[in-house]
């Protein structure tokens, strides 16, 4: 017997809130023609059938339209994000509302399900088991990239077998880029299969004016902020540890920034700033040490430091070092492996690096330098994602304050604890916001499909207003694209949304951080609430509120 | 300006539920005389003034009694636990209800506040800021032990200065033991200061028939179970990792057991069972490998394994090894430090150990053996609390399945991730249960004080019933005591409540674990809810429900 927790049972009954326009018949209103964010000429040439389409918004309508029954396929692509199941239940309900004979097929295990024709029909029995739940387990996910024409042809063949007229691809920037390429390929071939994308990623780096946030970001940040708040309260009670907390999000620091805005820790490193200021690892450490010293002067020998997962790759000197190491370790693999001790290995490697990188390398704590040499992936590359940046910073701060103590410049104590939060938030049950937003995205995708659209991403905007006032519609994926170098060749891709240093969220943080650093201004967000007062249960992220 | 989260603001208004008997005038009913759990003769001799007192229970009464105003002191002792602030607010409200001129003084930073006379008066302005919040930051906590007569005399002197008639000591088994000794000392001297204990610890190892649970256990387990559930959902979605999750709780496995009952992971190691069965580390690994192999046969190469923090010390062979290492490293410190490489150090050490321990030591993964040699505290002892047991088990399972693969006995994949949850739960805002329970304990302590009691622990029982039906009263601390060897001498101490292998919670787990292991029967408890339906918000732990 399948056992459920009381909260699981209570949440099954939750009816997600949707924009007013999605409650009855929908009129699709066309806006202005669009352009890509950059490289318009090149992108237009590559997407002759799907470039320049207008922005779409939905309005409530009295007109009853009849839609033919149709079969639709859906996949989940890439890392989990809270709300994926609600996109699918929204899509299911949307299709059934338009024509109860329509069918939804879920392809299993991500994009490879499409090419391998692994699928199951999603019936209401199945859908009802997954409403408002976290995870991607309803059909699984995967990281196969849909990029080759042979994959596209295979996908088309499999769609034809099931008489599928439209595919919905729920994924991040890469998956939506591939969705756009697939849409264009099918349109060029007149294949009769539409493709619609849905913006997913807890990292928050898939956004524009039209895609105000990707789903899952809200819930994941709330889970991490709950934990950060709890640890802050512990730090402030025990008064003896500095907690270094690494947060998921390799290619942008939106999560660290949002959590900082929610919890007001003593330090939050923002990778984009580190890169923009061309900071060294030592300078990042300086920034933390300065806070530690200031707090010690007030007798406060505790605190919390947030570290974005991708930090090391944003430090220009570290990035250069890692690139050199990758080349060099490939070249001298046997020599390095033949050496007896880590010390000899470090010395050998330091002798082969450029003067600049050698200086950076020898300045690293030994344990970290060893990790760079030993933890390599099957291609011999340094595994950046396995670097314990939080531990590294803690160790470096420790040795720095020890030195300051000897010099009489530090009178406090320093003891570090490190944490990494990622898996704790990716599959949390969606907050009310994410449950509503994802369900609305699914309903939106159904309307786009019924109206024959392809190459669009489902879009629900005006998200800081009550759900009733949200604006549903579609955004041409090509509108988000520019040309970037990938694996040596220029490719059309969705531009990643990094933290903007002149944006309101970062500026708000930057204005307060001195005070948060020196004083103890911790905020305790607590766990996600589903049933309480609306200001507790339905507020979205600070990032979104500030960007509005 | 102090900023609060919307949930912090909403929770300020929560009025904790209390037993019916605490709502008006209280009649204190004496039950039977009591005996200590063991060593009655010795304990009675050591506590001539406070041994054998009756159990007390409170009943509602029509009789209005007048109580004189009195000054009371309170301390928080040891590790944080959710609800500590509510004990203090309950105590404050209780004292003020009995006589509005009574005063409450909080001694700062734990027991050392008592001896150093560091205190602040807790006024309603201060109390109101901390109602229903997590943490111990209202007055701080500390780990100083109150054991020496000189400390007792200093405490008495400081109490006299403030005209304090009673002390409330909020702490775990050690702190309550010391509270009893202090109560006896004051009683013997006719000092005029009563001492009341309050049972605190997230570890859940302070309990008897009369103390059904220590406060904080409920909230901490719920936070950990939320995270375990989220990680389980991730494991079941990504289908590629085994997550090894270490949980706080060194001296007992109640937390791991409760979380297992809540979330139904694939494996949960219970230290008490490992010790009772005299298992080796290899046998613990076997137990996990068996599940991994069975699941792989079904194509499920993912799962979740719970590991109690104290595991290594419960493995008899490891305990013996660590004891030998402590002696040996003290003796050969210089020789070991003079060696050049970890390999040489391991070989040197292995040669000096007993045959049995040497075998255990050389069977350990190198990185773990190195950790045992390198991470020592200032006294040269191996730091058991720093051992990454979760990583150790993951590494050992990995190498075992690799071997099985070579032998053709394992066809799956294995990839481990490790986590440690402790600080995430110790200072969480208390669940409704813990908020109600701790507030009631504080109110109970006030009644015990007003009625002249000393050497009692505040007790609130019948906790699986609605709060209205809870039974408040007092239990003589001596009732919980036996004689144990501490630092070479026999001492009267509160008997630690380990997981009982013949108790209902463990037996329930043991009956289901095969099924939970081979199948995927994850339950997702989700975050603590404060405002929803009562079955979601007010249920206490499975452990307590099963013990009833």
TrEMBL record, chains A, B:
<feature type="site" description="Important for catalytic activity; stabilizes the transition state when the phosphoryl donor is PPi">
    <location>
        <position position="200"/>
    </location>
</feature>
<dbReference type="InterPro" id="IPR035966">
    <property type="entry name" value="PKF_sf"/>
</dbReference>
<comment type="pathway">
    <text>Carbohydrate degradation; glycolysis; D-glyceraldehyde 3-phosphate and glycerone phosphate from D-glucose: step 3/4.</text>
</comment>
<keyword id="KW-0418">Kinase</keyword>
<feature type="binding site" description="in other chain">
    <location>
        <begin position="248"/>
        <end position="250"/>
    </location>
    <ligand>
        <name>substrate</name>
    </ligand>
</feature>
<dbReference type="GO" id="GO:0046872">
    <property type="term" value="F:metal ion binding"/>
</dbReference>
<keyword id="KW-0175">Coiled coil</keyword>
<feature type="binding site">
    <location>
        <begin position="240"/>
        <end position="241"/>
    </location>
    <ligand>
        <name>substrate</name>
    </ligand>
</feature>
<dbReference type="GO" id="GO:0047334">
    <property type="term" value="F:diphosphate-fructose-6-phosphate 1-phosphotransferase activity"/>
</dbReference>
<feature type="coiled-coil region">
    <location>
        <begin position="315"/>
        <end position="342"/>
    </location>
</feature>
<dbReference type="InterPro" id="IPR011183">
    <property type="entry name" value="PfpB_PPi_PFK"/>
</dbReference>
<feature type="binding site" description="in other chain">
    <location>
        <position position="309"/>
    </location>
    <ligand>
        <name>substrate</name>
    </ligand>
</feature>
<feature type="site" description="Important for catalytic activity and substrate specificity; stabilizes the transition state when the phosphoryl donor is PPi; prevents ATP from binding by mimicking the alpha-phosphate group of ATP">
    <location>
        <position position="174"/>
    </location>
</feature>
<keyword id="KW-0479">Metal-binding</keyword>
<feature type="domain" description="Phosphofructokinase">
    <location>
        <begin position="71"/>
        <end position="321"/>
    </location>
</feature>
<feature type="binding site">
    <location>
        <position position="79"/>
    </location>
    <ligand>
        <name>diphosphate</name>
    </ligand>
</feature>
<dbReference type="GO" id="GO:0006002">
    <property type="term" value="P:fructose 6-phosphate metabolic process"/>
</dbReference>
<comment type="function">
    <text>Catalyzes the phosphorylation of D-fructose 6-phosphate, the first committing step of glycolysis. Uses inorganic phosphate (PPi) as phosphoryl donor instead of ATP like common ATP-dependent phosphofructokinases (ATP-PFKs), which renders the reaction reversible, and can thus function both in glycolysis and gluconeogenesis. Consistently, PPi-PFK can replace the enzymes of both the forward (ATP-PFK) and reverse (fructose-bisphosphatase (FBPase)) reactions.</text>
</comment>
<keyword id="KW-0460">Magnesium</keyword>
<feature type="binding site">
    <location>
        <position position="173"/>
    </location>
    <ligand>
        <name>Mg(2+)</name>
    </ligand>
</feature>
<feature type="active site" description="Proton acceptor">
    <location>
        <position position="203"/>
    </location>
</feature>
<dbReference type="InterPro" id="IPR022953">
    <property type="entry name" value="ATP_PFK"/>
</dbReference>
<dbReference type="InterPro" id="IPR000023">
    <property type="entry name" value="Phosphofructokinase_dom"/>
</dbReference>
<protein>
    <recommendedName>
        <fullName>Pyrophosphate--fructose 6-phosphate 1-phosphotransferase</fullName>
        <ecNumber>2.7.1.90</ecNumber>
    </recommendedName>
</protein>
<feature type="binding site" description="in other chain">
    <location>
        <begin position="201"/>
        <end position="203"/>
    </location>
    <ligand>
        <name>substrate</name>
    </ligand>
</feature>
<keyword id="KW-0808">Transferase</keyword>
<keyword id="KW-0963">Cytoplasm</keyword>
<comment type="subunit">
    <text>Homodimer.</text>
</comment>
<dbReference type="GO" id="GO:0005829">
    <property type="term" value="C:cytosol"/>
</dbReference>
<comment type="similarity">
    <text>Belongs to the phosphofructokinase type A (PFKA) family. PPi-dependent PFK group II subfamily. Clade 'Long' sub-subfamily.</text>
</comment>
<dbReference type="GO" id="GO:0005524">
    <property type="term" value="F:ATP binding"/>
</dbReference>
<keyword id="KW-0324">Glycolysis</keyword>
<feature type="binding site" description="in other chain">
    <location>
        <begin position="423"/>
        <end position="426"/>
    </location>
    <ligand>
        <name>substrate</name>
    </ligand>
</feature>
<dbReference type="GO" id="GO:0003872">
    <property type="term" value="F:6-phosphofructokinase activity"/>
</dbReference>
<dbReference type="Pfam" id="PF00365">
    <property type="entry name" value="PFK"/>
</dbReference>
<dbReference type="GO" id="GO:0009749">
    <property type="term" value="P:response to glucose"/>
</dbReference>
């Amino acid at each position: 017997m399948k056992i459920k927790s009381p909260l699981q049972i209570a949440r099954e009954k939750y009816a997600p809130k949707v924009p007013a326009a999605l409650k009855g018949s929908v009129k699709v209103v066309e806006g202005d023609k669009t352009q890509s964010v950059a490289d318009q000429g090149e992108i237009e040439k590559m997407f002759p059938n799907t470039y320049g389409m207008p922005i779409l918004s939905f309005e409530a309508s009295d007109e009853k339209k009849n839609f033919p029954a149709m079969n639709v396929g859906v996949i989940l692509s890439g890392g989990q994000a809270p709300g994926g199941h609600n996109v699918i239940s929204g899509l299911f309900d949307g299709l059934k509302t338009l024509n109860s004979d329509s069918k939804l097929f879920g392809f299993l295990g991500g994009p490879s399900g499409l090419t391998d024709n692994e699928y199951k029909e999603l019936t209401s029995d199945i859908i009802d088991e997954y409403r408002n739940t976290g995870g991607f387990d309803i059909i699984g996910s995967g990281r196969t990239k849909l990029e080759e024409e042979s994959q596209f042809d295979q996908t088309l063949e499999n769609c034809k077998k099931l008489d599928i007229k439209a595919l919905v691809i729920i994924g991040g920037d890469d998956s939506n880029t591939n969705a756009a390429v697939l849409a264009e390929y099918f349109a060029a071939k007149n294949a009769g299969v539409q493709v619609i994308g849905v913006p997913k990623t807890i990292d928050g780096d898939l956004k524009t004016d039209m895609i105000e946030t990707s789903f899952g970001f809200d819930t994941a940040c709330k889970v991490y902020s709950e934990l950060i708040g709890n640890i802050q309260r512990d730090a402030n009670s025990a008064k003896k540890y500095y907690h270094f907390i690494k947060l998921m999000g390799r290619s942008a620091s939106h999560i660290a920034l949002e959590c900082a805005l929610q919890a007001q820790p003593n330090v939050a490193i923002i990778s984009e700033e580190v890169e923009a200021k061309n900071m060294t690892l030592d300078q990042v450490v300086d920034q933390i040490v300065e806070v530690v010293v200031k707090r010690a002067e007030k007798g406060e020998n505790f605190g919390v430091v947030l570290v974005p997962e991708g930090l090391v790759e944003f430090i220009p000197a570290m990035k250069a070092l890692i690139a050199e190491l990758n080349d060099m370790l490939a070249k001298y693999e046997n020599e390095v492996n033949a050496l007896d001790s880590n010390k000899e290995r470090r010395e050998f490697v330091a002798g082969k690096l450029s003067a600049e990188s050698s200086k950076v390398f020898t300045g690293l704590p030994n344990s970290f330098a060893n990790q760079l040499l030993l933890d390599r992936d099957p291609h011999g590359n340094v595994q950046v994602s396995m670097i314990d940046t939080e531990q590294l910073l803690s160790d470096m701060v420790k040795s720095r304050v020890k030195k300051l103590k000897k010099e009489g410049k530090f009178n406090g104590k320093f003891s570090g604890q490190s944490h990494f939060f990622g898996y704790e938030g990716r599959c949390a049950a969606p907050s009310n916001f994410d449950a509503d937003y994802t369900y609305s995205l699914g309903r939106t995708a159904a309307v786009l499909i019924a109206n024959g659209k392809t190459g669009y991403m489902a879009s629900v905007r005006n998200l800081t207003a009550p759900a009733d006032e949200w604006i549903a519609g579609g955004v041409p994926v090509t509108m988000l694209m520019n040309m970037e170098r990938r694996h040596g060749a220029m490719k059309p891709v969705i531009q990643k949304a990094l933290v903007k240093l002149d944006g309101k969220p970062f500026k708000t943080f930057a204005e307060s951080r001195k005070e948060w650093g020196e004083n103890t201004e911790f905020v305790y967000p607590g766990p996600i609430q589903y049933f309480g007062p609306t200001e507790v249960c339905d507020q979205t992220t600070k990032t979104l509120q500030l960007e509005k």
